[in-house]
Amino acid sequence: MLSLLKRLLFKIKHKPLRWLIISSCSIVFLMVGFVMAIFVYAYSLGPPALTNEQNTVYYSDSGDVIGEERGPESRYWVDLNDMDSQLIEATLITEDRRFYEHSGFDLKRIIGAAIQDIRSMSMVQGASTITQQYARNLYLSHEKTWKRKLKEALYTIRLEMFYEKDELLEGYLNTIYYGHGAYGVEAASRYFFNTSADNLSIAEATLLAGIPKGPTYYSPFHHYQNAKDRQVQILNSLHKENLISKKEFYLASHEKMNLTEPENRSKKVIAPYFQDVVLQELQQLLNEDIEEIRSGGYQVYTTLNTENQQQLETSTNKTLDINTEMQVAGLAMDPKNGAIISLIGGRDHEKSQYNRAFQAKRMPGSSFKPFLYYAALENGYTATTSLMSKPTNFELADGTVYQPSNYNGYYADKPITLAQAIALSDNVYAVKTNLFIQPEKLVDTARDFGITSKLRPVASLALGTESVSVQEMVAGYSMIANGGQSVTPHTIKKVTDSEGNVMYERPEKKSEPTLDPRNTFILTHLMTGMFDESLNGYMQVTGATIADQLSQNYAGKSGTTKTDSWMIGYSPSIVTGIWTGYDKNKPIEKINEQQYSKQIWASFMEKAHEDKPLQSFKVPEGIVGAYVDPISGDLATPYCKEQRLMYFVEGTEPNSYCSVHRPDDSEGEKEPQPEDRKKNIWDWLPFIGD
């Protein structure tokens, strides 16, 4: 045969023509050989599995499964005979009209799509068959690369080679994604219509058939009109193919869709708000669409501590009145690395997916003051710096007068120390300090703590009048707790693909502190004062209502506005922030509701530290401690009724003993006389009025 061909070729006297024919024949032989090799290779691999194992699974920090993007409530495999015939017809006419005619690749459709793409100079027309889509969903990622396309082609050949068309169609309809975590026609039928896949009306079947093209865009829950427009297109196609009558077309297109109520839809059981954050973080890490991630088969190892999560939810549910409309947000974090260990973004994820811990911005009130007092420590303050606590009018740079007030109008009417000002949350002391260091400095300091929300450099910023998120505040407090190291709040430790290949692993972060470890330690100890009743003065310390519930060493700060209640505090191992309030900024008027955030915080922190040894904050180098009289701010003597250990940067500690309390002081406390009071930095600041 070859010799005959050779003789025929050499009879052609035109040499270029002869070589053109030889080259063409060689290319044809090579192509045929290549195609045959592919088919032989595909055959040698055997039949691929028809079940979809590409669930994206979430694991807790201990390795337990906490959720998957297509959980057990959203996976049902049903036979093709148990599916509504009209749904099958609608799917075929929508996705692949010649499914039963081609062998996995629709050449006519491919050529048509190519022509459309050339005309538009972009890839606007798709040509994937049902078999190709099935191969992609089962075994591949959704990346748009030639390598992925070649793999898809190979899987398509194998599927068509070893399985009947009905088997492929059945597998496709049981694995295609319909949005909202529902995979397959049975899961989608139950989710959208609360019925099985063999009991759908024409209207329901055609509505479902249109969703996979864009599960988000055509979701009847999110974009009802888009879903209806797509449904009418499919009904029109069925009518043109004489698969439904004109009457059926009219009735189905005008049928009112009875979609399921929210309470009847599938729900996430473990930490649903946390899982929402994981999905968003995963999207940023992998740079993929959410819908692609859902079907990507990823194994996601998260930071969630399921025991702590349960404790946070239990503490919240036990504290909040079941009849109140008050909302809650809570976030617990490991201060060493920013790992989020538990999270609630509201009272009921089914009713509202709005994550109040991340998305809401609320006024933090006095819980913002630690950032102010860190700046003060950086600018010469110590734990015993004294300022007058009494009603004060401040004349601001623009000529306006600002008069802050203390809670319930209580004032010491005498100088108080920084230690007492934090413990009692004295507002006059805070505003004086803010104006001394300059509000612009407070804004810069807040930025150093990771606060990214918009902050105006105004006098009232000291009292937390700008809006921030719970996540920002907890991250900021983590820097105080860990000695000044910056942290990045995160929920993901590692991500692998379905074969165990590591796609992402959070690196161990070791860096120099961005804040002064000495001042963060001093601030931490000052913040333990809210639970120390030796600092009681013109009123009780702000943590007095929960102090008797606490068994560990905690530092913290509460904050209250007319519409918001905050409690943020920490041990050396956990930082927790709780916010309570109303979504529409309704005032908090009931006394018990103002205490909810503290009660939830105390209950959770105690449960989280149950059966754990007593933890202490590590004292950095360059720090000295001294027992101080909290009234005078001088070194305590045996005659001082109250003494508190306070810490100072070495060289800034008090060097004089208290002269307020003396042996002959039968009243127990003597008011310091003006000549006894040491001058302080406020003596050089201008203000008007008393």
TrEMBL record:
It is found in: Cell membrane. It catalyses: Preferential cleavage: (Ac)2-L-Lys-D-Ala-|-D-Ala. Also transpeptidation of peptidyl-alanyl moieties that are N-acyl substituents of D-alanine; [GlcNAc-(1->4)-Mur2Ac(oyl-L-Ala-gamma-D-Glu-L-Lys-D-Ala-D-Ala)](n)-di-trans,octa-cis-undecaprenyl diphosphate + beta-D-GlcNAc-(1->4)-Mur2Ac(oyl-L-Ala-gamma-D-Glu-L-Lys-D-Ala-D-Ala)-di-trans,octa-cis-undecaprenyl diphosphate = [GlcNAc-(1->4)-Mur2Ac(oyl-L-Ala-gamma-D-Glu-L-Lys-D-Ala-D-Ala)](n+1)-di-trans,octa-cis-undecaprenyl diphosphate + di-trans,octa-cis-undecaprenyl diphosphate + H(+). Residues 331-573 form the Penicillin-binding protein transpeptidase domain. InterPro entries: Beta-lactam/transpept-like (IPR012338), Glyco_trans_51 (IPR001264), Glycosyltr_51/Transpeptidase (IPR050396), Lysozyme-like_dom_sf (IPR023346), PBP_transglycosylase (IPR036950), PCN-bd_Tpept (IPR001460). Residues 658-682 are annotated as: Disordered. Residues 661-681 have a biased composition (Basic and acidic residues). Residues 64-238 form the Glycosyl transferase family domain. Its main location: membrane. The chain crosses the membrane at residues 20-43. Keywords: Carboxypeptidase, Cell membrane, Cell shape, Cell wall biogenesis/degradation, Glycosyltransferase, Hydrolase, Membrane, Multifunctional enzyme, Peptidoglycan synthesis, Protease, Transferase, Transmembrane, Transmembrane helix. It holds the Pfam family Transpeptidase. This is PBP1A family penicillin-binding protein. It comes from Aquibacillus rhizosphaerae.
